[in-house]
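[audit] Reproducing an earlier prediction to check determinism. Same input, same settings, fresh worker. If the tokens differ from the archived copy the diff job will pick it up downstream; this log only records the rerun itself.
[audit] input (353 residues):
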Amino acid sequence: MSALAEDAAPADLWYLAALSSEVKPGAMERKLFFGEPVVLGRTKSGEAFAMKDVCPHRAAPLSGGRIVEEGEPAVECPYHGWRFATKSGACSLIPALPSYAQFDAAKIKVRRYPLHEANGLIWIYWAADGREAPPACEPPETGLPADWRPRITVRVGAEGPFDETVIGLVDPAHTPFVHRQWWWREGAGLKDKTKTFEPTPLGFKMPAHRPSSNSRIYKFFGGAPTTEIEFRLPGVRLETIRLGKRTVLGLTAMTPTEDGKTDIVHVIFWDIALLTLLHPIAQKMTESFLGQDGAILRAQNENLARAAHRPLYVGDPDEPAKWYVRLKRAWMARDASAPFVNPIAGGTLHWRT
């Protein structure tokens, strides 16, 4: 997948690679990001790492080998035993060379990817064109206490253009039609909405406000909850619900795996005891909700794969989608030597949902 294709995921940004709980000490796993194989692992001391899952020698997958910790931790290739340091990607051993060989193995390197781990989430920085450049932006932060971990996790595979998958994060008009659960919008009439948006460094947000009265799930919390909804490049949506001192955070992240395929991962954090008691129910509700997004995207892609189509954007309900497209294009065309300038000014939008 080309990082410069019109509907491709943008590079030089942070993507959700895995949950911390999925990467065990002393273990490795093969992943696909942007169509490229990556080995994601963790040393026995607990440090996560990511490298290209291709041995420079004969292209064997490093993920099929093992982590060796005889001094500096290294990944050992399963084919010929070449070792590559997890911290630098440099080759630290070529076992077949005789002891007297004068060869600097460290000149051979495997590409490494910067990682950021916080709140039980592992983010990977994907640079353009195979570069190992310093990250162009700060890794995503939840704003939660350091010891918070996901209570619920749901992963759904989506098919189709990356842009169409991400637009679902900022599209308000689909929710009463795609998501018809009794606890969300089923049977609820459409109401006029007025929403205010502000720009952020890598996106835009609706500042904290009272949630819509016809979205039933918010009534579960009682009292007077507020919700703040933020979108960030490349495809991250955060909804923070606050009720007094209590918080619920829903984070959805889009990660391209291979051409035309994207992982949608939704995680929820909370510090509300009643939600903990109702965890099995909340898990099923979240799976149902996100599954509907995956289903409509797959159905949409059936048409997109068979017929040329140019999307229509009509009125304020489609303005956030247009903002995303402008934002992504501006990021991809930016001057890397200067601070990024967000082209989105925000404003007040009106729609019915």
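[audit] rerun output stored. Observation attached for the diff report: The chain has two domains: 13-130, 152-352.
[audit] end
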